Amino acid sequence: MERPAWLIQPERRNVTQAARRMPNTPDPKQSSGNGLKKWLILGILATGLISLVIWGLQPETFTIQKVKIEGQHRTEPEVLQSLLSRYTATGFLYLDLAAMQTALTALPWIEQATVTQQWPDTVQVTLTEYEPLAIWQQTQTAAPILVSTQATPIEVTPTTDEQARLPLLVGEQLSTLVQRYRQVTALFRPTGLQLQQVSCSIRQTCTLQLAEGLSIVLGRDDYYRHLQRFLSVYSRIVDVQDMPVRQVDLRYTNGIAVQLATAE
Predict the structure, then answer these.
(1) Structurally, what CATH architecture does the domain formed by 132-260 represent?
(2) What digits encode the pLDDT tens for the residues 229-258?
(3) Could you please report the per-residue DSSP string of 125-152?
(4) What is the CA radius of gyration of the chain?
(5) Which residues have CB under 8 Å from 88's CB, separation 6+?
(6) What are the tens digits of pLDDT across the range 80-122?
């Protein structure tokens, strides 16, 4: 028996309304196409980024255009230029700062070196050079070399001006020579006496040569007190002598041996 028409119509209306309310089902082909486009765009961006990185890492991309040097006075500019060019040729990104500093401090005059980078193309080099204190000879016939204020040998040959201007230290024990020189110089400063040479033997018997032509012989023990005692009577010794004093020997416990210059 067939159902009445009025019973069938409401069901059809509900089906139609439900169909209208249901969302559209995505097309699988369209979704696949959109995903492919996204991956393609990402691939292009990644390729461009990699190319940019590779370009930036090339030494010739970020070349060093300026090298600023401060504190250089005695080191020859040609020597610095030759040394630094071996490192700056690698470019700004590959610059080995530690290696540059090590190479710079290996130069005779350089005590300290600091190398910094200034983006995008500049290198700043700050140098601290040794200050010469004296000229050192291990023996009277040895080749003279310069000594710094830090008692460090400077492996360069003294110029004629430096040999005439700087005091001479002769002996094998450099630290002892520098110590004696500094102590005596400080003691002489108020008197106006000028120390030109300090010579010490292995047993640390030292001879001081003054610019005034006087030689002073010091022993190993208590030499500083003996020298103070000599300076307290120096003017009287000089005044009472008819001839210049050539040498004084301070190695005696309670006295001073004085040698006069021989008359010509």
Answers:
(1) 3-Layer(aba) Sandwich (3.40)
(2) 999 888 887 777 667 889 999 998 888 898
(3) EEEEEPPEEEEEESSTTSPPEEEETTS-
(4) 44
(5) 64, 67, 95, 123
(6) 999 999 999 888 888 999 999 999 999 999 999 999 999 888 9
